[in-house]
Design a protein that fits this description.
Elongation Factor Tu (Ef-tu), domain 3; about 20% helix; 11 strands; five-stranded parallel sheet
């Protein structure tokens, strides 16, 4: 397993609670849209065993041509040891990334694509939308639906409807409106539904989609293949 140590080159305050850490791209480090990585803080591998409290599974919110690896995360006032350390890091500090993999690349199957996310889960979809804007081949259209009760919606400069590019974006701040809209979207019985958020959020969305007749193979989750049956088999 290769561990890449790299430096923070910029910290962007997206909202009062959400920051994006832009990291230098190590030589030979590559990724594709929908990728996640293991993001670790200094000292995580100092002992005999890795210190798991200093490691998090994070989505990469940028594409390679942006020349930085973006890690977007919510840091609340009351937070874990990991987030407390992360909050105090500065430009020039070192972090580690390893085990990078994509579970949710953009499928190009001449279908409509629906991106369903909660809060900062939208960071996973940012590269998919940018990839689609650059090359729309074999994607009919994309619709993004995000729920964020904070009302501090993310990446609004990218997640805004562009009719010419067949891209629509919706933000809602409550569950009632969100799940009503999911039901509306699920009237497309041939669409592809990507879902990113907490495990509870995934299960609730899957339940609503399945009730509307959407098949498991139409639902894309940011989970490893061996984990999918836990979510999609009921």
């Amino acid at each position: 397993m290769q561990i890449y140590w790299t430096k923070i080159n910029k910290i962007i305050e997206e909202t009062p609670e959400v920051k994006t850490y832009l990291l230098d791209c190590p030589k030979d480090f590559t990724w594709e849209e929908g990728s996640h990585t293991h993001f670790a803080l200094e000292g995580f591998n100092a002992g005999d065993k890795p210190n798991r409290s200093l490691i998090r599974h994070m989505s990469i919110s940028t594409l390679p041509h942006e020349k930085s690896i973006g890690i977007t995360t919510r840091i609340r006032e009351q937070c874990s040891e990991f987030k407390t350390i992360l909050r105090n890091l500065k430009v020039g500090d070192e972090v580690a990334i390893f085990k990078t993999h994509s579970n949710v690349p953009l499928k190009r199957e001449d279908k409509n694509v629906y991106l369903l996310s909660s809060g900062v889960g939208l960071a996973t979809f940012r590269p998919l939308v940018l990839d689609y804007f650059e090359r729309a081949d074999h994607v009919n259209q994309i619709h993004s639906l995000n729920i964020d009760s904070s009302k501090d919606f993310l990446f609004t400069n990218i997640f805004e409807s562009v009719p010419d590019k067949k891209f629509t974006s919706q933000f809602v701040d409550n569950r009632t409106d969100y799940y009503e809209e999911v039901k509306n979207l699920a009237t497309d019985k041939d669409g592809l539904f990507y879902v990113v958020g907490s495990d509870e959020f995934l299960l609730q969305n899957i339940e609503v989609l399945r009730e509307q007749g959407i098949k498991p193979e139409q639902i894309m989750l940011d989970k490893r293949e061996q984990q999918l049956p836990e979510f999609l088999s009921f």
